[in-house]
Structure formats: structure tokens, C-alpha cells
UniProtKB/TrEMBL annotation:
Transmembrane segments: 13-33, 173-194
GO MF assignments: oxidoreductase activity, acting on the CH-OH group of donors, NAD or NADP as acceptor
Signal peptide residue numbers: none
Protein name as it appears in the record: Short-chain dehydrogenase
Gene Ontology cellular component terms for the protein in this record: lipid droplet
Origin species: Oppiella nova
Gene3D superfamilies: NAD(P)-binding Rossmann-like Domain (3.40.50.720)
Keywords tagged on the record: Membrane, Oxidoreductase, Transmembrane, Transmembrane helix
Family: Belongs to the short-chain dehydrogenases/reductases (SDR) family.
Organism superkingdom: Eukaryota
Amino acid sequence: MLFHDLIDLITDVIVLLVKIISAYVESVVTVIINVPKKDVRNQVIVITGAGHGLGAEMARMFAKLGARLALIDINQENNERVVEEIKESGGQAFAYCCDITNEESIAEIAKQIQWDLGDVDILINNAGIVQCLPIESLDSKNIKRTFEVNTFAHFWTIRHYLPKMVSRGTGHIVAVSSIAGLIGTAHLVDYWYIYFDKKIFYLIYKLFKTISASKFAIVGLMEALEMELRQNKANDGIKLTTICPLAMTTGMFKKPKSRFSWIFPVIDARYVAKETVNAVLRNQTLITVPKSALAFYGIGKCLV
């Protein structure tokens, strides 16, 4: 019996290694070969936090590609302004005012979107908040609110849209996280914070050493969801994409600055939106914006 268990273990390890190598080969091939972009014309795309910043920029870009948009934001005025702009440009969009931290509200909005537009093809969880406070200054209300918006809302929307995607055998879920979702530091425990050290090589590491429990959770959620879909044989038709940008001009941070802007510039929301849309069209699993961010983090890890 022990012999058979050993054989099973060895077999499982070999299968795992083959899958890992295949994944890396696939990643390299997609970089070298210009993978055709998918067509999103007439597809229904839900975007949370669509009333300003990155969400609004993505909405405008997807509208130009012919997608039909369901834009969700708690700020009704801003959201409707984006919808009117898209309609004036010949696009199709609907505005939905919703507190995404409320699962019942998400359910109601989902019913309305189904009625207005039909089945959802792409879900983009973009909404997020940041408190910008060190942990000793964060009260329970701050922490709970950060997780409710940045993390739990992803669960509520996915729970409503994923089952239908699985039954249809097609769909795409996008999560906007942060570099903070990959690595960690002080002063923004609930979200993230960037700081610099005097030594240049140590600085490279410290620049990306950000901490964000809520953003780490998003990356973990998407990784676990991918494994679950793979086990259920649903990963071929349903795609997952996680976006991890550096600080950008969305209005979330007050006058974001970078001491070494020639290496690590503060990113314009339009650029992040463009990279995000491109990642969705190419079915990429994980990207950092800029792409160099992950490489510099790796270099820093080797030097410290």
C-alpha cells in the first residue's frame, strides 16, 4: 500500500511540474508571438468604480471597441456623467448607483443589468478606497470599510456573475489590485505605501516593498479562483486577469509624487486603462503597470 502511495505521489509531482513548465512556456510564447486580440463588440461589460479615474477611462475605451457597458458607482452624478459622455460618442452604457459593500444591493443591480443588457460577459472589479493612515491610527471602522470595498465586494460580484459564466462556458473576470497586492511595507497596512531608502539598490527593493492586506487578498482570491476553475474544467472558457499598477493619477491619492520619477513615474490613469484593456483582450492572467515593476522587485529581493 505504501508503494502505491509513493507511486501516486511521484506521479502527482511529475504532473504538477509538467503543468508548471507548460504554463511558463505558454507565457513566453504569448510574449514572443503577437496573440490575436479577442473581439468585445456587443459584449456586456460590468465595471465597478466607473464614475472617475481608472474605471471611467476603461469604460471609454471599451465603449470605443463596441462593448455594451454597465457602469456601477456609489457616486450617481459622476457615473451618469460618464454614461452621457459615452452615449454622446455613439457608445452604449447604463449607469447604476450601488454600494458594492452591500450584497443585497449587488443582487438587485445584477437583476437590473440582466434586464437592461442581458448576460454579463466581462466583470471588472475596479472600485477601491485607501485610508492613508499608519496602523496605530486606523480604527476598526476604517479597517472594515477598506476590506468591504477593496476585498469583500469582489466576492459579492463574483458570486453573482460566475455561476452564469460557468453554465454558459464563457466569461472573463478582472480584478484591479495593486503592486501592494504582491509585496508589503509600513504606514498603509490596510492598503499600501511607498517609501525610499538612501542606498540606490536597497531603494529599488524598498520602493516596491508595499503592504496591503486588502490588495493581497485580491491576488490570493484570483489565484485560488483560477485553481478552482481548473479543477472544475472551466478554465478554458472563463478567463481571469489581475492588474497590479503602481501609484496613478486617479484622485485616490492627493498629489502622488515619486522622488525618482525618471525610473518610477506616477502613472496616468489612461495609461493603466490602456494596459488593462489590452490585458483583457489578450486574456493575460497577471500584469503589473508598468511591466518593469515586477522585474525591479525581483532584483531588489536578490540584493537584500
